[in-house]
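Changelog note: in this version the structure field was regenerated for every chain. One regenerated record is shown below for reference.
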Amino acid sequence: MASVTSEGSGSGRKRVDQEIPLIPFIDLLLCCVMFLLVTAIWNETGSVPTALTSEGGAEDFVEPREAIILQVAQTGFVLASTAGDRIEVPTHDGELDFAALEQRLEERRRIQPDVPPVKLQPDDDITADALVATMDALRRRGFESLSFL
């Protein structure tokens, strides 16, 4: 603790001594510094990168790439795409049918040789084991670009 001592000028005055607790002030200062360090990265991650195009911009327009959306539920898989097609893979004996899913994925690869990205949409009641097995099935069939919706 730091203390401030003041001498009285006369004998009748009482001394005004104060003890200042420095540890709480240092703690508050460190908390403020840590807050600033942690939130400094939000300046970069909170922004969306953009780029200006040429005058018209029409020749620079790139068609958005088709993506596959794989919904994982207790009732089975739903393999859909942003183009609008939809294939359902129901469960087999109450379990998710990964063999049928791989077969549908192989058919999809024959139809579309360039591999589109896959966006997984698991239900809340899907276990982590089932989700990992689904990602393994996708990777075995050559679908490397995976993300979650």
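Spot check on this record: Helices lie at 22-40, 42-45, 98-111, 128-140. The mean pLDDT is 81.
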